[in-house]
Design brief:
By secondary structure, the chain is mostly helical. The chain has eight helices and no strands.
Length: 258
């Protein structure tokens, strides 16, 4: 009987801790919502914050490259789909092979960008207001499940800077998840020479999510750029340039008149 009584006491004590934790989390959620409603000055602005000339130079030296390369990747895959629909399956898959090479290069650049943002986050002069990322915008089940889990965690984080840091981790992991799914699909099709409609559908879904992640990474870059002091902009520019070194720029240099 004493052992059974101790067992009952242990269960009751554990249940009290669980109920207390749930109540604390619920109260924290309500408090966060209340503070967010009552303090409109802490809300994210209704548009993108303007960039000065110095910040604009850093942004224009990197962001257009990402936007151009992800657009070219999308065009290449669209052309592959058109060739497949026209019955030219060998040509279509050769274009997928070329797209895969560009995809892996983009993965390294985006992952490098997110690591660079994490590195420079402590230099921010004020709290970065993060942009929310929602699960319903993704198509692959793995990404929907992953981002949905992040949405629950995001509700329990009060600091905007910590939420931004959490967002960078989400994007970094998202790049890995989507690229791993694409790589698995691509290698399986290469190994078996079997490319049914399901393979093409998976590639389409993976690129949709990859494109979305790349755009969110550029927006995260812009958000941090607004928060950095001017003295730290050259160091950020050097780190970003290292990611693109040896690659062709997306924009051409103006022609010198003679």
């Amino acid at each position: 009987m004493p052992c059974f009584g101790n067992f009952q006491f242990s269960i009751l004590n554990s249940m009290r801790w669980l109920v207390g934790f749930l109540i604390l989390g619920f109260v924290g959620f309500l408090l966060r919502r209340a503070l967010w409603t009552k303090l409109p000055t802490q809300r994210a602005p209704a548009g993108l914050a303007p960039l000065g000339s110095e910040r604009r130079a850093v942004y224009d030296g990197f962001a257009p490259e990402i936007e151009a390369r992800i657009a070219m990747l999308g065009i290449s895959l669209n052309d592959a789909f058109e060739e497949r629909d026209a019955g030219r399956h060998d040509l279509a898959w050769r274009m997928v092979r070329l797209s895969a090479s560009e995809w892996y290069g983009m993965e390294r650049i985006i992952a490098g960008l997110l690591s660079t943002l994490t590195k420079h986050l402590p230099e921010a002069q004020f709290v970065v207001t993060p942009r929310s990322i929602h699960a319903h915008r993704f198509l692959s089940k793995s990404m929907v499940d992953y981002v949905r889990m992040h949405e629950l965690l995001d509700q329990l984080v009060f600091s905007s800077q910590r939420r931004y840091q959490l967002q960078l981790r989400l994007l970094r992991r998202a790049v890995e998840i989507v690229t791993a799914e694409f790589r698995h699909t691509y290698r399986e099709a290469e190994r078996t020479d079997d490319r049914p409609a399901e393979i093409w559908s998976e590639i389409d879904v993976d690129f949709h999510d990859f494109d979305l992640i790349a755009k969110e990474a550029v927006l995260a870059f812009r958000a941090l750029l607004v928060s950095l002091p001017p003295a730290d902009l050259p160091k950020l520019a050097v780190d970003l340039d290292a990611l693109l070194r040896g690659r062709v720029r997306a924009h051409s240099q103006p022609v010198q008149r003679v």
